[in-house]
Amino acid sequence: MHRTARYLDDRILGDLLPSASEAAEPCTAALVALERRACADDPGLSDQPPKVPVAVGRPGAFAHGMPAAVVLDGTRLVGAKWISGDPERPPPRLSGLLLIEDPEVGGVRGILSASAVTGVRTAAVSLAALRAAPPRTEGAASGRPWRVALVAGGTQAVHHRAALEQVAPDATVTFVTRRAPGELPLRPNDAATGPDRLHEAVAEADLVITSVAFGTPGRELDPSRIRPGATVVATDYATAVTARTVAGVREHGADWTGPRLITDDPVQFDATRAKGALPDYPPADATLGALLRDPASDAGRAVRERPVGATVVVNHLGVAVCDLAVGWAALRRAEAAGAGVLLPR
After folding, report:
1. Is 196 among the domain residues?
2. Are residues 193 and 275 in the same domain?
3. Residue ranges with strand state E in the chain
4. What residue numbers bound the domain in which 20 lies?
5. Are residues 88 and 180 located together in one domain of the fold?
6. Is 218 helix (H, G, I), strand (E, B) or coil?
7. In 3-state terms, what secondary structure has residue 289?
């Protein structure tokens, strides 16, 4: 029985976390587990209520809890993430912790800084999304290396660029950010441009990923500038990919009636819509878990092999079952290495 809780800060986690590519498999398993949720007489393979917000009382600030349980490799993980943000706070504007229970006897076994975990998890789920819904532009379908518009800087730029190495090693990326090129993880043939040239970058892209930093003003993606057949991955709610964007891309390959709007968790997605954080968004057409559960199924193939020119949007909001998957891997590595700070409990 663990009589201590192990605390891991971002500095320690930097050496222990799996890469986004390594985390894609357990995150995929967690997303699939969401398809069998707990009910009154069955614990299911997962349990994940919608995020639990509290009224902070400062304009623009938020705080919420994200409890969850998920079965991975026969072990039922239970825990929660606490995260808060304030656009007026000196950077970093977001902060949080991930708590992981001891799977055998209960009691907090790990306390992890949430920032590094969230960075890896977000890119890992984006990678899973690309396995479910790769681009189907004319260029991508012909075998030409992907052209990517990555609307991000900082942590998300780093993790997403690294993740792309696995799914599309020959891809070229245009970073759309206010950051200087020297601050970005540029590979050969990559480029950087400012937010004022967002639409030019998007028009050339087979894949668009938006991860605008919290507290940064967004700029709506004009659907008429998105290349038909592109995959659009939004990790920042409706900051860039708005309801108008979603409605507009439905005209790309309009004869195709398959899923156009895909999300990670429909329960959280609908709760987010209900509270107004996805203004005028329609319900999702499909979930990543359903598409990834059996890639050879009709549903999985319909999106992956959709007609050239049919654009899809994946809006993943960040789910705690995937945070647990990433955090558990890091905690086990820390225990094996004797890393972190042990706190009595």
Report:
1. yes
2. yes
3. 4-8, 46-47, 52-54, 62-72, 75-85, 94-101, 108-113, 147-151, 172-176, 191-193, 207-210, 231-234, 261-263, 286-287, 312-315, 341-344
4. 4-119+321-344
5. no
6. coil
7. helix
pLDDT along the chain (345 residues), means of 10: 88 96 97 96 96 94 96 98 91 91 94 95 98 98 98 94 95 96 96 96 97 85 97 97 97 94 97 96 97 91 96 97 98 98 93
| CA distances in angstroms from 337 to 23, 231, 340, listed in the order given | 19, 40, 9
**CA max distance for the chain:** 61
Cα separation, 218 vs 195, in Å, equals 9
Instruction: Copy the structure tokens of residue 266.
Output: 């429909």
Residues 22 and 147 placed together within one structural domain of the fold: no
- How many Å is the Cα radius of gyration of the chain? 20
Q: What tokens appear for 50 in the block?
A: 């919608």
Count up the domains in the chain and report the number. Answer: 2
